[in-house]
Design brief:
Blueprint (H helix, E strand, L loop, with lengths): L3 E4 L3 H6 L10 E9 L4 H4 L3 H5 L2 E3 L10 E2 L4 E6 L12 E2 L4 E2 L8 E6 L1 E2 L14 E4 L2 E7 L1 E6 L4 E3 L5 E11 L9 E14 L3 E3 L9 E5 L1
Length: 216
């Protein structure tokens, strides 16, 4: 399942307004059966804005409002301490984050997927600059990584029963959709299903968690 992650543009506004404390707030993952994203990635600040263009899933094992994220963590790592080093002749997906094997104070994110070359590229040291490495394009994204993570949210179906969804929106639950800030949305690449006792699980990346943000 190919997942496309989009951070809502107004998340930064919510953070600066003091609306979200990821560590202490109730953060939920809501499964959507349909979502016409359109401009909502730039205009939506609250869950009600998303639900005006989406339909929440219903089905076996699903509870309205979604699953509450557990085991939430926030950790900052300076670039030279980032654990994933770029390797020769290795397949990378868009979004993968690496540092050079010899740290230079920056981390790089794959903005074009592919297989890395057989030798180390010349890494740019200006944020925003790119380098082509075999089939991969790396972009200098900053001097450190803020990693936001949690346990994978999951819904277990009953037998018989089916649960289907095409998107997952992550949001802070205030109990009222019009005041519940949205964080990001996953496009699951089409409708996914689980049935007959199977689990519908949104699995976070083992290295990059729910979300990575970069410092300049």
């Amino acid at each position: 399942m190919a997942v496309t992650v989009t951070v809502y543009g107004k998340l930064q506004q919510s953070l600066w307004e003091g609306r979200v404390n990821f560590a202490t707030d109730t953060i939920k993952a809501m499964l959507l059966s349909s979502y016409t994203i359109g401009s909502t990635t730039d205009t939506a600040q609250f869950l009600s804005d998303v639900l005006a263009a989406a339909t929440e899933a219903t089905g076996s094992g699903y509870t309205a409002g979604g699953a509450t994220l557990a085991s939430k963590t926030i950790a900052y790592t300076a670039a030279n301490s980032w654990s994933v080093q770029r390797a020769n002749s290795t397949a990378y997906a868009v979004g993968d984050v690496v540092r050079p094997s010899t740290g230079n104070g920056y981390v790089y994110q794959a903005t074009t997927a592919g297989t890395s070359g057989g030798s180390t590229p010349t890494w740019p040291t200006v944020i925003g600059q790119t380098v082509v490495d075999g089939g991969v394009t790396w972009t200098n994204v900053g001097r450190g990584v803020l990693l936001i993570d949690a346990a994978d949210p999951s819904w277990t179906t009953v037998n018989p029963g089916t649960l289907a969804g095409s998107h997952i929106v992550f949001y802070k639950d205030t109990g009222t959709a019009s005041t519940s800030p949205v964080l990001l949305v996953w496009d699951l690449g089409g409708t996914q299903t689980a049935s007959n006792g199977g689990a519908f699980t949104s699995q976070f990346d083992a290295t990059e968690g729910l979300l990575v943000m970069f410092t300049g």
